[in-house]
């Protein structure tokens, strides 16, 4: 009952957060320098033509009217029409969102597993060669720029070894599966298209590894520190005094206590990766939401920028909600 009440409270808190993001995004994109109408203005464009363009884009209405129209559209899944392409933003978002989420979730998922494994091993062997290597690797991985690491992986994995395909998209030519979600690996799995699945997974390896290295480095230090704290706490000593050792001690005390602290950190990292994935997408020619959102920002495409920021905020909020629920399920003290 306490857990259900806690979940309901967390869900209720998501609503004002999203509403605040919508309001701030709507206002901020309109105070940026530049005018989206200028993208349609030519040397022979008259003032009447400019006004007609402004009316067609809905920019002639008062600011409050524009906001109410935008807010009403969000509730029915209508994010407006792209100023640059004239295509509904929802249509473009459906094509762009899934590949980015596929990349981000796989990268963060691999990083979380790697951080837990190596962090616990390092904590069990403090000041050993393994611990020193783990700490140095974490420091180097944190300081390494993602775009540089991506280029290095392309040189090694594609040019030198030839194990993985080059940065030319998300799947091999002529192997695209029947689109369902927009993420090629998921669509290939759902349609049992095994050649497409193999190709999509190969294209995922290098960009996922690029994301996972930096995220693993960030999480590894936190996991190691949490595991060391647990080993220094009274429950660990008490369990050892009662004769508990080996795997039961590690899985029942160390692993459970460490994992309970990971979800919140993983949610934080997930949001950061989602917001900065554009560099990885550019390096690997991954046509996802990051490139689309950056292009919309450069061309002052208000509907695109607003939709992209709202979606990122929504994923961020949902990730934190799931993390809080998992944390509460693993640690009953959180529900009090």
UniProtKB/TrEMBL annotation:
Give the Pfam families listed for this entry.
BPD_transp_1, BPD_transp_1_N
Which InterPro entries does the UniProt record give? BPD_transp_1_N, MetI-like, MetI-like_sf
Report the subcellular localization.
Answer: Cell membrane
Mainly localized where?
membrane
Q: Gene3D superfamilies given for it?
A: MetI-like
SUPFAM superfamilies annotated for this entry?
MetI-like
Report how it sits in the membrane: Multi-pass membrane protein
What is the official name of this protein in its record? ABC transporter permease
Q: What is the lineage of its organism?
A: Bacteria, Bacillati, Actinomycetota, Actinomycetes, Micrococcales
């Amino acid at each position: 009952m306490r857990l259900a009440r806690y979940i309901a409270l967390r869900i209720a808190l998501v609503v004002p957060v999203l509403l605040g993001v919508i309001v701030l995004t709507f206002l901020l994109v309109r105070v940026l320098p530049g005018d989206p109408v200028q993208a349609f203005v030519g040397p022979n464009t008259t003032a009447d033509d400019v006004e007609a363009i402004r009316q067609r884009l809905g920019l002639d209405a008062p600011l409050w009217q524009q906001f109410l129209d935008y807010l009403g559209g969000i509730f029915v899944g209508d994010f407006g029409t792209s100023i640059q392409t004239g295509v509904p933003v929802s249509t473009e978002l459906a094509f762009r969102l899934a590949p980015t989420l596929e990349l981000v979730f796989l990268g963060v998922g691999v990083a979380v597993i790697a951080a837990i494994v190596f962090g616990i091993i390092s904590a069990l062997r403090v000041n050993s060669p393994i611990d020193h290597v783990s700490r140095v690797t974490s420091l180097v991985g944190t300081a390494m720029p993602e775009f540089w690491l991506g280029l290095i992986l392309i040189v090694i994995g594609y040019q030198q070894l030839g194990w993985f395909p080059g940065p030319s998209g998300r799947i091999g030519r002529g192997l695209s599966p029947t689109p369902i979600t927009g993420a090629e690996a998921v669509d290939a799995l759902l349609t049992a298209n095994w050649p497409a699945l193999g190709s999509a997974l190969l294209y995922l390896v290098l960009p996922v590894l690029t994301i996972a290295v930096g995220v693993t480095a960030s999480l590894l230090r936190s996991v190691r520190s949490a595991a060391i704290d647990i080993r220094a706490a009274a429950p660990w000593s008490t369990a050892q005094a009662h004769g508990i050792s080996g795997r039961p001690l590690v899985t029942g005390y160390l692993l459970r206590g460490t994992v309970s602290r990971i979800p919140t950190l993983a949610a934080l990292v997930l949001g950061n990766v989602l917001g900065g994935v554009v560099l990885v997408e550019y390096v690997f020619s991954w046509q996802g939401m990051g490139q689309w959102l950056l292009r919309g920002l450069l061309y002052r495409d208000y509907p695109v920028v607003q939709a992209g920021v709202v979606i990122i905020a929504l994923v961020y909020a949902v990730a934190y909600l799931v993390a809080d629920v998992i944390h509460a399920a693993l640690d009953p003290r959180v529900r009090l």
